[in-house]
Automatic annotation (TrEMBL):
Pfam families: PA
One GO biological process term: proteolysis
Transmembrane parts of this sequence: none
Entry GO CC: extracellular region
Protein's name according to its UniProt entry: Protease-associated domain-containing protein 1
Location of this chain's protein in the cell: Secreted
Highest taxon listed in the record's lineage: Eukaryota
Function: Plays a role in the modulation of physical activity and adiposity.
Keywords tagged on the record: Glycoprotein, Hydrolase, Protease, Secreted, Signal
Length: 169
């Protein structure tokens, strides 16, 4: 799309398990790099990258293949993270802000200066949301969450009730 067309577009995903974070989360697509979702994944793993910033080789890369990675902001560019996940066979990457108290400010993810590209979708997630997902997985001793992505919220009458409670703080 022409520049500026995707700026305020939102994309939604729903956590199916673990049950204590079974909410619909709001993410924003990268502004000028990455692919788009041509498929709706009814059930796909959301795998926290190890190490979380995903700036180099991953310890759990085998679990990211054909799944979606949850990555933390920082250490390298948004594009570098997206390429690392793509190289490990990930279908998409969700990059959460590293400010864990960020529950309202969406950052515009733009290309770095290297003129590289990435083909998989890259989404930005609020720091609070990323933290709560990771914390729940740690508490349950789970290596990943199960999500549906993207979710069409216009078809969900109770969307308001399905948002994370902390988004209203």
């Amino acid at each position: 799309p022409p520049p500026g067309l995707r700026i305020h577009e939102y994309l939604y995903f729903q956590v199916l398990s673990p049950g204590d974070i079974r909410y619909i989360f709001t993410a924003t697509p990268a502004k000028d790099f990455g692919g788009v979702f041509n498929t709706r994944y009814e059930q796909i793993h959301l795998v926290p990258a190890d190490p979380p910033e995903a700036c180099g080789e991953l310890n759990n890369g085998v679990f990211i293949q054909d799944q979606i990675a949850l990555v933390e902001r920082g250490g390298c560019s948004f594009l570098s993270k997206t390429r690392v996940i793509q190289e490990h066979g990930g279908r998409a990457v969700i990059i959460a802000d590293n400010a864990y108290d960020n529950d309202s400010f969406y950052i515009e993810m733009i290309q770095d200066s290297t003129r590289r590209t990435a083909d998989i979708p890259a989404l930005f997630l609020l720091g609070r949301d990323g933290y709560m997902i990771r914390r729940s997985l740690e508490q349950h001793g789970l290596p990943w969450a199960v999500i549906s992505i993207p979710v069409n919220i216009t078809s969900i009458p109770t969307y308001e009730m399905m948002q994370p409670p902390w988004t209203f703080w």
